[in-house]
Amino acid sequence: MGRVKCVMNYVKYLLAALMLLCLSGAAAGQDKARMAAHQQRLTELLGRVASAPTDNERYLASEEAVDALRDALDEPGSERWRWTLPLSASVLTSPDGRLRLFTWAVVRDNGEFECFGAVQFFNERTGAYEHEVLHDKSEDIMNREESLLSADNWLGAIYQDIIQTTAGDRTYYTLLGWNGVDNLTDRRIIEPVLMRAGVPQFGAPVFRRERNLRRVVLEYRGDAAVQMAYDEQTVEVVTRERVKEKGRYRTVEHRKEHKEKVIIFDEVTPQIEGMEGLFQYYVPSGLELGYAWVDGKWELRYGTQGRLQDKKLNKSFAPLPKAAPSYEYK
């Protein structure tokens, strides 16, 4: 009799476990369906942001896209959803899964850009994932390379890569971004992000020997091809030494090549002497610079030459045109 009772209890246990498994699977299926619906809605709105015929329609679509994204990020488990967005927008997730950024831009009829988006992050103080809407205040930020910024006071960009590094017990996230600005100039940005009081702070003093520098901002002529990427490169490091020969000093160059992960970018300088600060005249100088993560800092490497080995510098990303398309959105 005791054996029969044990068998019956075991059967009841199995049935209960199967029921819980079925309920869990059904709930997961519902969560997936809800997230898929959010993604479809957001994709439709971002398509309208990129192609609607007037400024008002593009801005309205962008505002609706922000609201749709907030609704999606309010869903439990949204941090695990694998997003697929149109190429005119960007979604990046850090390797540790604790930081995710959504960014896109509205291009006005006059060619000016305004960026939008949101940041989702794990708040260690609350032990939960949270999110904040990004507010582009680019035109109000005076000291762009030195300012500590937040989601409410953001130097707008469409982010193309996220680099995770550590120093001691701190984790840093470095973003590579682009902004079309206006008909005269474009902008590329190296933006370090550090979690402070549980929320992301944009800008950090992690550039060696440049104490006041909290981000790198390159602004240049809009039709200039300025490259920026983080990749393993064959880097040529050039050092110079003064040597004395036959009573005279001369400079000897030493060149050494090695592979390392670096942020490679083009130096930009005024094309015409005396045009310093007028960024519509800035073009690549022909010199490539590099930042390598060394002992908790981004160390600037002068005289580096990246060997790309048939790799595109930028990730899959379609920059928006400087003027809105003339065809009608349907």
Structure description:
With 330 residues, the protein is α+β, with helices and mostly antiparallel strands. The chain has one domain (53-304). The protein is 21% helix and 41% strand. It has helices at 2-51, 55-73, and strands at 90-93, 99-107, 113-123, 128-135, 158-167, 170-179, 185-196, 199-202, 216-221, 228-245, 248-270, 282-294, 297-304. The strands form 3 sheets. Strands 5, 6, 7, 8 and 9 form a 5-stranded antiparallel beta sheet that branches. A 4-stranded antiparallel beta sheet has the order 1-2-3-4, with helices on one face. Strands 10-11-12-13 form a 4-stranded antiparallel beta sheet, with no helix packed on it. Strand 12 and strand 13 form a beta hairpin. Helix 1 packs antiparallel against helix 2 (55-73). The chain is globular and about 90 Å long. It starts with a helix and ends in a 26-residue tail after the last strand.
